[in-house]
C-alpha cells in the first residue's frame, strides 16, 4: 500500500489527513495518508527510512523553508519562492529521491483572482514573513499587484504594524493574513489594523480556515470589505499536490 503524509509541527489543525484519506476511500485508491509530527526537520531522514512505501509528502509550518536543503531537486517556481510544501518521493534503486514543489501559489491565485478588479486592486499588504507569505507574494505579483510585507519586528524589506495608517489601507486595499492570528482556539485575536478605513473596495483574504470567519474577516466585513478564508485555497492546493506526486517525469 502506498503511503502519503504531512510533516510539520504541530499538526492538530491538519486538514490534509481527512481530505486525502476520504479521497482514497471514495476513489478506491489503495493508499493511506498519515501525519508525521516532527519536532525538528532533522527527523525527516528517519521518517523516510522507516516508511519505504512513502510516495509523497506535504510540508507545513515551520518547515517549508527548512526542508529545501534535504531535497535532491526543486522546481524553478519553488526555488524562486524560497519555500516548498509538496515533496515527491521516488526510488532509484536503493536511493530515495526527493523533488520539491510549491502548490500554495496555484491554490491561492486561483482562489483570489475572481475577487480582483484591476481598476481598484493594484497594491497588497502581506501580513507575516514565513514560508506561506513567500508563496502569496509570488502569486500576487504574478497577478500584477505591488506587494509589501508586514512584520511585528524590524526586518529588511518590511513595514511594521504601527506604520499602517488609514491612508495605507486605502492604498494597499488587498490584505492577506499569512499569520496564525485568529486561528482556533485563539479566535478572539486578529492583526492590529485600522479596520475603520476599509470599505467595499477592500479585500481581506485569510489563509486560516478554522474558524470559517476569523475576527480579521469579521471586522473588515463590518465595514463592507470582501472577505475569504483559506479553505478553497487548501482544496485547490491539495488537488495540485496529487498532480505533482503523479506527474510523468
Tell me briefly what this model is.
The protein is an alpha/beta fold and 249 residues long. The chain is 29% helix and 24% strand.
Query: Helical residue percent?
Result: 25-40%
- Computed structural class: alpha/beta
Largest sheet: 6 strands, mixed
Query: Total helix count?
Result: 8
What is the helix/strand order? Answer: EHEHEEHEEHEHEEHEEHEH
Mean pLDDT: 96
Judging from the principal axes of the Cα atoms, what is the shape? elongated
- Low-pLDDT runs: none
Q: Nearest-angstrom radius of gyration?
A: 19 Å
Strand order of the largest sheet: 2-1-3-5-6-4
The span between the termini is 22 Å
Provide an overview of this structure.
This protein has 249 residues and is of the alpha/beta class. The chain has eight helices and twelve strands. Strand 7, helix 5 (131-142) and strand 8 (146-151) form a beta-alpha-beta unit. Helix 4 crosses helix 5 (131-142) and helix 4 (104-112) crosses helix 8. The mean pLDDT is 96.
Describe the secondary-structure layout:
Blueprint: E1 2-8, H1 16-27, E2 31-37, H2 44-49, E3 54-59, E4 73-74, H3 76-81, E5 86-92, E6 95-101, H4 104-112, E7 123-127, H5 131-142, E8 146-151, E9 158-160, H6 166-171, E10 174-177, E11 203-206, H7 215-221, E12 226-228, H8 231-245
Parallel strand pairs: 1-2, 1-3, 4-6, 7-8, 7-10, 8-9, 10-11, 11-12
Antiparallel strand pairs: 3-5, 5-6
Helix pairs in contact: 4-5, 4-8
Amino acid at each position: 500500500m502506498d503511503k502519503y503524509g504531512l510533516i510539520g509541527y504541530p499538526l492538530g489543525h491538519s486538514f490534509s489527513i481527512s481530505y486525502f484519506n476520504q479521497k482514497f476511500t471514495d476513489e478506491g485508491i489503495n493508499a493511506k495518508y498519515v501525519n508525521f509530527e516532527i519536532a525538528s526537520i532533522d527527523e525527516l531522514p528517519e521518517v523516510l527510512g522507516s516508511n519505504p512505501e512513502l510516495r509523497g509528502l506535504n510540508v507545513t509550518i515551520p518547515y517549508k523553508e527548512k526542508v529545501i536543503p534535504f531535497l535532491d531537486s526543486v522546481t524553478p517556481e519553488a526555488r524562486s519562492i524560497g519555500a516548498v510544501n509538496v515533496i515527491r518521493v521516488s526510488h532509484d534503486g536503493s536511493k530515495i529521491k526527493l523533488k520539491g514543489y510549491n502548490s500554495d501559489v496555484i491554490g491561492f491565485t486561483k482562489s483570489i483572482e475572481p475577487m480582483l478588479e484591476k481598476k481598484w486592486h493594484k497594491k497588497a499588504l502581506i501580513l507575516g514573513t514565513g514560508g506561506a507569505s513567500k508563496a502569496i507574494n509570488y502569486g500576487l505579483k504574478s497577478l500584477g499587484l505591488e506587494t509589501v510585507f508586514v512584520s511585528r519586528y524590524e526586518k529588511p524589506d518590511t513595514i511594521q504594524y504601527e506604520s499602517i495608517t488609514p491612508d495605507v489601507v486605502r492604498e494597499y486595499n488587498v490584505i492577506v493574513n499569512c499569520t496564525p492570528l485568529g486561528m482556533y482556539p485563539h479566535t478572539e485575536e486578529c492583526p492590529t489594523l485600522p479596520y475603520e478605513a476599509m470599505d467595499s473596495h477592500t479585500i481581506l483574504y485569510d489563509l486560516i480556515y478554522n474558524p470559517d470567519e476569523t475576527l480579521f474577516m469579521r471586522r473588515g466585513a463590518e465595514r463592507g470589505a470582501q472577505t475569504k478564508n483559506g479553505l478553497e485555497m487548501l482544496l485547490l492546493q491539495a488537488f495540485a499536490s496529487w498532480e505533482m506526486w503523479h506527474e510523468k517525469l
